[in-house]
Amino acid sequence: MDFNSYLDKANDLLSKDIVVDGRVIPVKYVAGAAGAVVGLSALKTYFNGATNTSKKRLDGKTALITGANDGIGKETAIDLAKRGATVIIACRSSEKSNKALADIRRASNNNNVFLESIDLSDLDTVKAFANHYLESGRPIHILINNAGIMALPVRKESKQGYELQFATNHLAHFLLTELLLPVVKKSAPARIINLSSRAMYNGVIHFDDIQLKKNYQSWKSYHQSKLANVLYSGYLARQLKGTGVFVAAVHPGVVRTSLSRYMTEGFMYKVAAVAIYPPLYLVTKSPKQGAQTTLYVATSNNVNDSNSGEYWADCRVVHGKNKYQHDKAVEDNLIAVSKELVAKWL
């Protein structure tokens, strides 16, 4: 059949009608609706991203996850617990956290899931948590620094007086990891996973005003903290090469979680959020989908020293998104500043 003949037959088909319960529906409307459904489904599949296909069991392994009482962290905890791991969810003590603990145990059919208290906006509790963990003698085969806050509209400070996004997203996890490194190395082979974001693409470490006291902007702060996660991952990988400890920075994708709660404060923001939710749903991930890259680097057999310290998205390494990534001078400078800020607790 030549092309013109094909078009004639297609036009003839679309010009016809079908009858449903006595109602006439033009075929072209049905075809258009079907095409729209297929197109939207394809779009949704694309934005859902890659899926971790590893079937690896984790019996006898211990995973520690911060902020696992909600969203990506909770889904990560469920998956690792289903694989047989002992899972510690480190978050603030609350009714929400207690419910999450029960949910994770039930969903995974694994009672070796435990809640331990930590407040990442307070370095005193980070130190207390680490001391308690080290004294317990338990191993850590997978450390996932998952918790975070995003885009606070006004500048806030942690208990110690540090800018809150930088303190929570970077400093607290930096301190926690440094304090727990002895047990992580002793537990090798082990993995350290730092949740970053594609927000790091625009990140700069403002060494002249790292607390952003002079010019605070919500996204400027978030970008800086997420780049800090990537830089710390690169630094750690250099320090831990040959020890059997793998390090990764992970972008989960644009995920529908409570992380965006600060972006919808106020009545007008809530109205706007309701209005844009339908199209936003198409281009965002569920928490379970957002956990896939974290789970990939936690369970894959394809990670080692050669790709340790890299930035991962959709279950693969992504290069060249920020000029400071793997800049050893910037990494070292950030770590020097970070150590100075948390020296009291190291």
From TrEMBL:
Record bears the keyword NAD: no
InterPro entries, sorted: NAD(P)-bd_dom_sf (IPR036291), SDR_fam (IPR002347)
UniProt keyword list: Oxidoreductase
Gene3D superfamilies noted in UniProt: NAD(P)-binding Rossmann-like Domain
Superkingdom of source: Eukaryota
Pfam families: adh_short
GO molecular function: oxidoreductase activity
Name used for this protein in its record: Uncharacterized protein
Species per Swiss-Prot/TrEMBL record: Umbelopsis ramanniana AG
Taxonomic lineage of the native organism: Eukaryota, Fungi, Fungi incertae sedis, Mucoromycota, Mucoromycotina
